[in-house]
Amino acid sequence: MNRFLAAILIASATWVAPVLAQDNSYPSENWTVPYSGKLNEFPPCETQSIRALISRRFAATRSEYWGEPKAILDIDNVKTIGFRPEGLAYIPRLYCEGVAQTSDGVKRRIVYSIIEEAGMSGIGFGVDWCVVGLDPNYAYAPACRAAMP
Predict the structure, then answer these.
(1) pLDDT digits (tens, 9 = 90+) for 74-130
(2) How far apart are CA 81 and CA 36, in angstroms?
(3) Positive or negative: CA dihedral 130, 133, 135, 140
(4) Whole-angstrom Cα distance, residue 122 to residue 15?
């Protein structure tokens, strides 16, 4: 019986291997639901509405989940640190970083990405962020490295 199972595993691995080895350069713009994949169609990292969205969601998360009334007061020194560094086969993302002034008076590095078609119900741009030193469940550990390109 063990040899039979081993044979099945080996056979299935040979069928799956070509699928896993597909070329990773097929642009996401050519998927069934296409992305534009054009940098000029992304809102710039400095866009006030993006920074306000991060601030609102940060305050809500800190309050609701962590029971801490901490907020981002401002995000300064914003710059772009990458665009589509993972390659063409991934959903287009614009990576940004800046300095977040939090309500406890501390300035911390913040990294965030603007994701195409990742807004509410897949419409518009979505945003993912991490404030260095304020990642209590280590979702982007170490020091928000996992949120960077």
Answers:
(1) 999 999 999 988 887 788 899 999 999 999 999 999 999 998 876 665 667 889 999
(2) 20
(3) positive
(4) 33
Rg (CA), the chain: 20
pLDDT in tens, 115-130: 887 666 566 788 999 9
What amino acid is encoded at 87 in this protein?
A: G
In 3D space, the residue among 57, 116, 111, 72 whose CA is nearest the CA of residue 90 turns out to be 116
Residue 33 predicted with pLDDT over 70 = no
CB 144 within 8 A of CB 135: yes
Strands (E), the chain: 72-83, 93-102, 107-115, 126-131
Partner residues linked to 108 by β-bridges: 100
* Amino acid letter, residue 30: N
Of how many residues is the chain composed? 149
**143 and 79 in contact (C-beta within 8 Å)?**
no
Task: Report pTM.
Answer: 0.75
